[in-house]
Prior knowledge:
The protein is built from 15 helices and 13 strands. The chain is an alpha/beta fold. The protein folds into 2 domains: 2-175 and 361-376, 3-Layer(aba) Sandwich (Rossmann fold), CATH 3.40.50; 178-359, Rossmann fold.
Amino acid sequence: MRVCHVITKPExxxxxxxxxxILSKLPRNEYEISVITSPEGILSSEFKGxxxxxxxxxxxxxxxxxPLADILAFIHIYFIYRNNKYxxxxxxxxxxxxxxxxxxxLAGVPVIIHTVHGWSFNDYQGPLRRRLxxxxxxxxxxxxxxxxxxxxxDIATAFNYGIxxxxxxxxxxxxxxxxxxxxxxxxxLRKKREMGITxxxxxxxxxxxxxxxxxxxxxxxxxxxxYEEMPNVNFLLVGDGALRTRCRKLLDKTPxxxxxxxxxxxxxxxxxxxxxxxxxxxxxxxxxxxxxxxALSKGRIVVATNTGGVSELIEDGLTGYLTHPGSYKEIAEKxxxxxxxPGSFNKMKKxxxxxxxxxxxxxxxxxxxxxxxxxxx
Length: 377
């Protein structure tokens, strides 16, 4: 069965990592796999190096709206479809999801699947932009065979806005390589030194792309509040993105005194999680953050904004704390509360680890997607 996946940009994010896991694990004796993506992104070499996979890089696929580039991307993708005669096209992310599905319909692809890694519209957009994205999601859903959501919240949002009827949706939650994340780092102190931490003090970290959705400036503001009361805490910000310069400018004005470390993009997330005590996520909107699944699997306590599917992962007060988006003071209060109660800290760590079982494994996710392919084809 010929299957083609399409994703906008191979950056280091949950949608991209999930897509890589699917492409890596689908059995090649059942599927002939292709993938279309942008050539720009930290994961481009990994997409190119996928075993027994045709990788097509479209230079016209960009994240922002660009009418000329979007038309050229549509034409390019359409001809890739026509030349390969795919049985299934499976799109990911908002831009690739719109362009890829319309090109698939025009090319006569019989089965069109889209995974929602978080809807393209949100409450932080201007009214005109929000209405545009909502309109595009609705009309594109009409030509989609099945829409996969990674959280119950996203399905509820779709029903609330009338995007498509109930039978068009399927819930398939993210899976991660649990074997990699469940194993413990042999020498955490050495890893701390590698990251620039030369003390044995607690470490708070956020693993995220530095973009408006993730609101990394709120994380820095929360770090300042924590430092004012507990100056012996270290902070890591793992990731990169459009807000990097603004984050550094804000940090330059703070009294954190070398306690805050930017790491940039990293591929050793499993090892970094082993040196963290608390994981923070300050997102304004979300689908299902894969970074929190990874953190919980390591037994890390999570303090995160209650948005998207986050509440489906975090049991408030048991495995972490849920806070209001935009409230960096609340983030700081919860982190301080965790550090001030060692008994509760150890209990929450154990609860966090137990909350991620085999149902969050990558094999389960791929098996469910393969079963859906067989059913629809």
